[in-house]
Amino acid sequence: MKGIARVAAAAALTSMVAGHAIFAEFEVNGVSAGKENGLRLPTYDGPIEDVTSAAVACNGGPNPLVKFSPNVINVPAGAEITARYIHTLDTDWRTGLIIDASHKGPIMVYLSKVSNAATAPIPSSGWFKIHEEGYNSATGKWAVDRLIADRGYKFTIPTCIAPGNYLMRVELIALHAAGSYPGAQLYMECAQINITGGGSLSPATVNFPGAYAGTDPGIKFNLYTSPINYTIPGPRPVTCGGTQPTTAATTARTTTTGAATTRTTTPATTTSRAATTTSASTGGQQAAWGQCGGIGWTGPTSCVSGYTCKELNAYYSQCQ
Q1: Considering only CA atoms, which of 1, 42, 36 is closest in space to residue 224?
Q2: Where does the protein principally reside (predicted)?
Q3: Measured between alpha carbons, how far is residue 206 from residues 13, 113, 257 in Å?
């Protein structure tokens, strides 16, 4: 059984370039704001792995932000948002690849209040979480599984959030190579929104970088263990009414049934489904973000110019 699990883990870890994704469109109560509208976007779909980098706020760094929408999208407090992730900016979310199915993990949503969402610099401080979903012990599914199945990810803006301009940070963490740090792949972009109506909630905030550490159990995590007991990183989401969360630490994880989110600490068993993929190489060298090493790997072990082969774990090294 250990041998089978090891093979399954190794196969799942070989999903590479196809796993990349970008949050590139969103809907407000079922109405699309338009592809790339109201968003700050990179042209490249790669992840952020260094949780101490400034790029962990709204992307950037190795994925330069070059598409800045001039528009701010009105969002009523209490609205249902559908975040559309796609593989690249050329992908159609209706028919194309969302993200490779092996890239399982949580999805979280943060807000940061700014004076003008279209022009404000990306803040490092002042972020608070409004939604999270991790592993569902009842169904054996992750938030990313729901994103893929629904071709979009739904959540709700709390009704008590104070009106005004915000950057809305939607984040997906792929855990397929997170057994060592750096290894977890963070995919996030920020939308420019103006919340209307609402209340007067002004919750405690965290910083990006600062909200996560490389040793956090939600960042350094072996996806291929059983039973799964996963702790979502960062603070707990704000709530309308009652005591607001003030600390990032928790032993609970998120489970979801339909649109409702609850907390549980009961672990569940699961099995890992292997994924297959192909990778492109050039002249005997592996392309950017392709596999370049690991147990059982027989392909290229050197990378194209500008990239180096980095070991993520015993089964998977990647050109970065």
Answers
A1: 1
A2: secreted
A3: 31, 12, 28
pTM summary value:
0.74
Asked if the model's pLDDT at residue 1 lies above 80, the reply is no
What integer pLDDT is reported at residue 314 of this predicted model?
56
**Residue-wise DSSP of the chain:** -HHHHHHHHHHHHT--GGG--EEEEEEETTEE--TTTTEEEESS---B--TTSGGGTT--TTS-EEEE-S--EEEETT-EEEEEEESSTT--TTTS--S-TT----EEEEEEE-S-TTTPPPPSS-EEEEEEE-EETTTTEEHHHHHHHHTSEEEE--TTBPSEEEEEEEEEEE-TTTTSSS--EEEEEEEEEEEES---B----B-TTTS--TT-TTTS--TT-SSB-----SPPPP-SSSPPP--S--S-EEEEETTEEEEE---B---PPP------EETTEEPTT-EEE-TT--S--SB-TT--EEEEETTEEEE-
Q: Give the pLDDT confidence of 31-43 residue by residue, as tens digits.
A: 999 999 999 999 8
Structure confidence at residue 158 (pLDDT): 97
pLDDT digits (tens, 9 = 90+) for 125-153: 999 999 999 999 999 999 999 999 999 99
Domains, the chain: 22-207 (2.70.50.70), 290-319 (no CATH)
